[in-house]
Design a protein that fits this description.
Layout: E1 75-82, H1 107-120, E2 124-128, H2 137-142, H3 145-154, E3 158-159, H4 170-177, E4 189-191, E5 199-204, E6 207-215, E7 230-232, H5 235-249, E8 252-258, H6 268-278, H7 291-297, E9 303-306, E10 312-321, E11 324-331, E12 337-346, E13 349-359, H8 368-385, E14 388-392, H9 407-423, E15 429-432, E16 444-447, H10 448-454, E17 460-467, H11 468-476, E18 488-490, E19 492-496, E20 502-507, E21 510-511, E22 517-523, H12 524-527, E23 540-547, H13 548-559, E24 561-562, E25 569-571
Parallel strand pairs: 1-2, 2-3, 6-8, 8-9, 9-11, 14-24, 15-22, 19-25
Antiparallel strand pairs: 1-12, 4-7, 5-6, 10-11, 12-13, 14-16, 15-18, 17-22, 17-23, 19-20, 20-21
Helix pairs in contact: 1-3, 3-8, 9-13, 10-13
Length: 574
């Protein structure tokens, strides 16, 4: 780990004290979006990421000879699986707001349990369906080095790439993959120069296991600059081509997919947690490609490990296609659970199966070698993020309802406005996307790490100058498409009427004037049209070079005592 303490790994929030001088710099912002509205006509926004028709050159994996002794015999086989770990190298906190995951997870426990299960069933593979990067300070500080070193130690048979692997752009992703001891499998995404494989065939005992990976439609989900040098292909066409290849070269076919399954919500927390990822995938209607689409329309897949929508599937979704059975499984998010799908195969078909989601709780002894590998990273992160910067005199929840804003997102909007006004005192108001907060800040001491978990993405603030008509449009966008949570504002108030229009707008306490121009503050993701703000691209903008997270940290330092505030958006008869 020669580069462990290199200055390039230090998080930008180390220099939040420079905010007042306006000299903060950060990493390229990235969209922290939702599953975009899609259709099979493959149309995209003018500034979006196009889909290349057909499928890429699949290359040729080394051919592995079949074992003739398997013919006609029942063959046991296990798929161990994770997805959407989101940089959760350490376990979730015991008081984590989503009780299903509280106190669970961590790479050291994952290593112990996978080793134990592999010893019990050597005829097995360990796979991941993407989004192992981004979500905790480990990624903000070390840009993927820690996660990829540890996943190498865990001995994954294959992993694919999710949308959040692109959060710092392709070049940073390529550098992060330099710490991984294998090539990721990305069937419908290619790179130039190439560092991934379209598919792989690995041995699990006597079995040849063919594995391929898919990424969901990326338009509206990944900022176009972060996808440069990558090419995206239709996942359905690609799946058909690669499965045709794998049925000739492997005994069993496993798809590790970051396309996303239709969420079978178990409870309110689960639905709320994932709705920023699921969006219109929450409905099976329409033409959007989901993992169900792939399982139903691509015969020959035996197992599909689903990621992206953070769903927990305890009982596999089963699809019958031309006499062949495909099982969809998904382990939730954050590495709180390890999935274990036990199969009995005969002549390339699934005869029997049993799925189990194993909680990685305190009953699982951490692996000492993994703990030792984590220790220097943890020491560096903790030396910064454990600093107390304020006190929350109440709970700042990440969620809003139709009637009441999110107190946390209001705080984030306040911080964004304060940061912008240090650079231009004439900024009128700020708006923060409803999907921006990713964790609560609860009553008690507030540490720097609370800001990192609330705002894990390196999105920057952008000041835009808009006419009054556009300003009204901005305020009228209540939420992202197909989502119940409201956006948050600072420096403005208004009323939402029963018909959805807004009235009684006040900016800085003064009546709204549609004949003047306004200076507003958003994130770079919103400025590029994300979160429903299609009216903003092309407007006059000034990139402030301030991370939204840094603005939040600086604001808390100044305020010290925080009190939740709501009531800026009043809903009438709703």
């Amino acid at each position: 780990m020669a580069n462990l303490l290199s200055p390039r790994h230090v998080a930008t929030s180390l220099i939040v004290g420079a905010l007042a001088a306006g000299v903060l710099a950060g990493c390229a912002g990235s969209s922290h979006g939702y599953l975009p509205s899609g259709n099979r006509s493959l149309k995209h926004r003018a500034n979006g990421i196009p889909v290349t028709p057909g499928f890429p050159d699949l290359g040729q994996a080394p051919l592995v000879p079949a074992d003739p002794s398997l013919a006609g015999q029942p063959v046991p086989f296990s798929v161990l699986y994770t997805s959407d770990i989101h940089s959760r190298i350490e376990p979730f906190a015991d008081d984590y707001y989503y009780a299903t995951y509280a106190g669970k997870g961590g790479f050291a426990r994952l290593a112990t349990k996978t080793a134990e299960l592999r010893a019990q069933q050597p005829q097995s593979v360990l796979v991941d369906s993407g989004d192992y990067l981004q979500g905790t300070p480990y990624f903000n500080f070390f840009k993927g080095e820690a996660e990829m070193r540890l996943m190498s130690m865990l001995g994954f048979s294959a992993l694919t790439i999710g949308n959040h692997e692109f959060d710092n752009g392709v070049d940073d992703l390529r550098r992060a993959m330099g710490y991984y001891n294998n090539r990721p499998v990305t069937s419908n995404v290619t790179f130039n120069p190439e560092f991934a494989s379209r598919y792989t065939v690995v041995k699990a005992g006597k079995l040849r296991v063919g594995i391929f990976g898919l990424l969901t439609e990326v338009d509206g989900l990944i900022a176009p600059p972060n996808f440069q040098s990558a090419t995206y292909y239709d996942p359905l066409a690609t799946a058909r081509a690669v499965v045709e290849r794998l049925r000739r070269e492997a005994d069993v076919v496993v798809c590790i997919s970051h396309v996303g399954t239709v969420p079978p919500w178990a409870d309110e927390h689960e639905r709320d947690h994932a709705d920023e990822h699921a969006s219109d995938a929450a409905s099976s209607e329409g033409d959007h490609i989901t993992d169900e689409t792939i399982a139903a329309k691509v015969p020959g897949i035996d197992v599909l490990v689903s990621g992206h929508t953070h769903v927990m599937i305890k009982r596999p979704k089963v699809f019958e296609n031309n006499g062949e059975r495909c099982l969809i499984v998904s382990p939730g998010f954050g590495g709180g659970f390890l999935g274990k799908l036990d199969l009995t195969l005969r002549d390339g078909k699934v005869e029997a199966y049993q799925n189990n989601l194993i909680a990685l709780d305190r009953t699982v002894r951490p692996d000492p070698a993994i703990e030792a590998a984590i220790a220097p990273y943890k020491a560096r992160v903790d030396s910064v993020v454990k600093e107390v910067i304020g006190t929350a005199n109440g709970d700042f929840k990440r969620y809003a309802t139709d009637a009441v804003e999110s107190a946390l997102n209001n705080l984030i909007a306040d911080a964004s406005l304060a940061a912008a006004r240090t650079l231009d005192p004439e900024v009128d108001f700020a708006i923060s996307s409803s999907g921006t907060p990713r964790n609560h800040i609860l009553h008690g001491q507030v540490r720097i790490e609370d800001a990192f978990y609330a705002l894990p993405f390196d999105n920057k603030l952008v000041m835009m100058t808009v006419d009054g008509k556009t300003a009204r449009e901005v305020l009228s966008i209540q939420r992202r498409p197909n989502e119940r949570k409201r956006h948050a504002i600072a420096g403005a108030t208004y009323m939402v009427q029963a018909n959805g229009t807004i009235a009684s707008i006040k900016i800085g306490g003064k009546a709204f004037d549609e004949n003047r121009t306004y200076k507003i503050v958003v994130t770079d993701y919103m400025a590029e049209g994300g979160a429903g703000f299609a009216m903003l691209p092309g407007k006059t903008r000034r990139d402030l070079q301030v991370l939204q997270r840094d603005a939040l940290i600086a604001h808390i330092r100044v305020k010290r005592q925080l009190m939740p505030e709501v009531g800026r958006i009043v809903a009438r008869n709703r």
